[in-house]
Write a structure and sequence with these properties.
It is built from 3 helices and 8 strands; from the N terminus they run βαβββαβαβββ. It is globular. Strands 2-3-4-1-5-8-7-6 form an 8-stranded mixed β-sheet. A hairpin with a 3-residue loop joins strand 6 and strand 7. The chain is of the alpha+beta class and 134 residues long. Bound molecules: zinc ion.
């Protein structure tokens, strides 16, 4: 079951200036900063009412975020949905014809198991499924 939008991910070039910008926009400071070494990204989380915004900064030119910015520029990178059971959702969505970037859930930021659906199978939108690790 898909419960709700968990967060929206935004690709940024520079954490320092973007944290300043989004702190002004939301009138609050980020509540968490976390590096995901395996993904070569720094993540920065803002809580906005009941919603979360994740800023993603590449730590290497090899990072998917660096490649995204090179192609499309900064901006909305993905929408993440909170799921009850990520393994079941992957199975269900694969049977519906969705193509996953990683079919095996991996550890993401913010204590989550995550899997990405390839944007070519979802109208150009990169979709992240995430399940909180309890
Ligand atoms: Zn995300």
């Amino acid at each position: 079951m898909i419960n709700k939008i968990e967060h929206i991910g935004i690709a940024i070039k520079d954490a320092k200036s973007s944290v300043e910008l989004f702190s002004k926009l939301f009138n609050t400071q980020p509540y968490k900063k976390e590096s995901v070494v395996s993904e070569k990204v720094n993540t920065i989380f803002f809580q906005v009412g009941g919603n979360k915004i994740e800023l993603l900064e590449a730590t290497s030119s090899e990072s998917a975020i660096a490649k995204f910015i090179e192609k499309k520029g900064e901006g909305i990178h993905h929408i993440a949905f909170d799921v009850e059971n990520i393994f079941e959702e992957i199975k269900r969505l694969k049977s519906e014809g969705f193509v996953f970037i990683n079919e095996e859930p991996k550890h993401g930021a913010d204590n989550k198991l995550i899997a990405f659906i390839h944007p070519k199978s979802s109208n150009g939108v990169l979709i992240e499924l995430c399940q909180e690790i309890k």
